[in-house]
Write a structure and sequence with these properties.
It is a single chain. It is elongated and about 90 Å long. It has about 160 residues and is mainly alpha-helical. The longest helix has about 40 residues. The mean pLDDT is about 90. About 80% of the residues lie in helices and about 0% in strands.
Amino acid sequence: MPIYREPSAKAKRTVARRLIGRTWPLSSILLLTVGVALVFVGLYFIVIRPSLLPEDVRYMALPAAQLDAVRPQLETWLAHVFQVMGGYIFATGTFAITLGATAFREHRWEAAAGVLIGGVASIGWMTFVNFVIMSDFKWFLLGLALLWASSLVVFFVERRTL
């Protein structure tokens, strides 16, 4: 007859986590949410965003005659610029989703380092620049940046409790 062995504390936490639905840590859910949002932002830049928004014209502060003289060439060039930028935003979102579903979910340090560096270089920098130019979208971007940062804060809290 087999002898019963008490499960280890780690095994109990694993079972408890599965029973209460914590197989997806909150940190991963937050990162996945940001990733999905960035995919949609990227699609917006690729498919929907006009070359010149009213805030762009305000920022340039050019007289209408001057702007009208270069508008066709500027709009054509900016359409390409924003399509490329949208592709990079889409890719950043895809990477965030992939990390959130794999190594970040497993609370691996190298995943957190990638999320930190990638977040600062992408949504963090984009948010900073949008505040500098007083963009109409700065608060939306700040929300995404804070959501990204909160995924890291929660990651380290969760990691301490493992």
